[in-house]
Design brief:
This protein is of the alpha+beta class and about 170 residues long. The protein folds into three domains: about 80 residues; about 45 residues, no CATH class; about 50 residues, no CATH class. It is about 40% helix and about 20% strand. The chain is built from four helices and eight strands, in the order H-H-H-E-E-E-E-H-E-E-E-E. A two-stranded antiparallel sheet has the order 1-4. It has a two-stranded antiparallel ribbon with strand order 2-3. A two-stranded antiparallel ribbon has the order 5-8. The longest helix has about 35 residues. The mean pLDDT is about 85. Bound molecules: protoporphyrin IX containing FE (HEM). Protoporphyrin IX containing FE binds next to helix 4. This is Cytochrome P450. It holds the Pfam family p450.
């Protein structure tokens, strides 16, 4: 990109190297007034700063935002709501004695389960969700339809009883 802009300058087309940030830097690199001219290192440093300050920050913000949205959604509406453990034989678990054949339902926030039988998609599922969400957001803006009725029901998973009606608008 820099080379392309520099070619414009060396071809005598200083004014068409762009009025964006990179264009201003390249112009400053070829500034007639020596006191205002900047070095190649300056250009590289400015580009690195701009990349880090402008890209990395928003990138991380978006990553946290998506993670929080996904975690909060999993907390409020965990798809696998009920996680049951059946005791196969009597066992002492720390200070608890668990009798044979009792069902133990846990109601804390562990959306992917835990222990030896933790969800095999534990790492994959949030990535899949982020990719799907990114692909939708790249192409559409959307709002909830006035027809939507909020009614989560438990039917093996927690699901919207009447579906979720969404109005998509192509971007
Ligand atoms: C948001 C999405 C998902 C949620 C909330 C979820 C949740 C769960 C839960 C609660 C369990 C039971 C864990 C336990 O008993 O401790 C489980 C098991 C399992 N999940 Fe998922 N899961 C999701 C996505 C996936 C995906 C994408 C895959 C496959 C690519 C997957 C594969 C499995 C498998 C194979 C088991 C059985 C593991 C075993 O018994 O050893 N899950 N999941």
């Amino acid at each position: 990109m820099v080379t392309k802009r520099e070619e414009m300058v060396t071809n005598g087309d200083l004014d068409s190297c762009g009025s964006d940030f990179l264009g201003l830097l390249v112009k400053a690199r070829y500034e007639d007034d020596e006191s205002k001219r900047i070095s190649v290192d300056n250009v590289v440093d400015e580009c690195k700063t701009f990349y880090l300050a402008g890209h990395e920050t928003c990138d991380i913000l978006l990553t946290w935002a998506m993670t929080m949205i996904i975690n909060e959604t999993l907390r409020l509406y965990p798809p696998a709501f009920e996680m049951m453990r059946k005791v196969d034989k009597e066992v002492q678990l720390g200070k608890f004695r668990l009798a044979k054949a009792t069902n133990n339902v846990q109601s804390v926030h562990i959306p992917f389960g835990m222990g030896a039988r933790i969800c095999a998609g534990y790492n994959f599922a949030p990535i899949l969700t982020k990719i799907a969400l990114s692909m939708i957001l790249q192409r559409y803006a959307f709002t909830l339809s006035p027809a939507y009725v909020h009614s989560p029901i438990y039917a093996f998973t927690i699901r919207p009883q009447f579906g979720v009606q969404v109005i998509f608008q192509a971007l």
